[in-house]
Amino acid sequence: MQDLWQRIEKQLRGLGSAGSFGAPASEDSILAAEAVLGVELPEDLRASLAIHNGDAMKKLDGGAWQSDGPFAHMELLSAGAMVSEWEVWQETIGKEGLEPQPEGPVKALWWNPRWIPVTVIAGSTWHHCVDLAPAPGGRIGQVIEIVDDDSWRRVVAPSFRAFLEQIAADLNGGRYAIDDEGRLVHDSWT
């Protein structure tokens, strides 16, 4: 995992991206998150958190915190933020929704407590989640995309490492541009 993060960081520096990733998560913070979530996180996700515990955060006027990561439309979550987003789904959003329309080996559920959010997309309740209870044909630890106001659920990568590998490939392939604030915007957003 260290080699993959070094590649991503080098590509970000080469593009001149603003923002950064967080400091490493401690083993205690990962274990605390697992205890609340009631799961053991996949080894690739644990290894990633031990390198970067999500995006760096900055304190705003008034005391609120905001992601200071390099991507304009995607926040990589810390272990604590994964728990917070999961709790929101558990307590409110996940109670009911549209009839799910899964693409690929994702269970046809509105919400599954074994879907662990790892990103927030566009500052909303649109997430990439590590799927720890896939449908037949899926892989434990596959990354899926879910959103609270749409019925689709889809597999985007077979593992968290593969998810990061795709980001690295897209960075290397010129699929990101720098916006006015120095953040990276994927060409699928433009």
Explain what you see:
This protein has about 190 residues and is α+β, with helices and mostly antiparallel strands. It has a single domain, classed as SMI1/KNR4-like, CATH 3.40.1580. It is about 30% helix and about 25% strand. The protein is built from 5 helices and 10 strands. The chain has helices at about 1-15, 25-35, 45-50, 80-90, 160-170; strands at about 55-60, 65, 75, 100-105, 115-120, 125-130, 140-145, 150-155, 175-180, 185. The chain has a 6-stranded mixed sheet. It has a two-stranded antiparallel ribbon with strand order 1-2. Strands 9-10 form a two-stranded antiparallel sheet. A hairpin with a 5-residue loop joins strand 1 (about 55-60) and strand 2 (about 65). Helix 1 (about 1-15) packs parallel to helix 5 (about 160-170). The longest helix has 14 residues, at about 1-15. The protein is globular and about 40 Å long. It starts with a helix and ends with a strand.
SS strand fraction: 15-25%
Helix content: 25-40%
- What's the CATH class label? Alpha Beta
Number of domains: 1
The number of helical runs is: 5
Question: CATH architecture, please?
Answer: 3-Layer(aba) Sandwich
Strand line-up across the major sheet: 3-5-6-7-8-4
The whole-number mean of residue pLDDT values reads 92
Low-confidence sequence ranges: none
**What is the radius of gyration?**
16 Å
The fourth-level CATH homologous superfamily is SMI1/KNR4-like
Q: Could you give the count of β-strands?
A: 10
Structural class: alpha+beta
The third-level CATH topology is SMI1/KNR4-like
How do the SSEs run, as a string of H and E?
HHHEEEHEEEEEHEE
Note the overall shape: globular
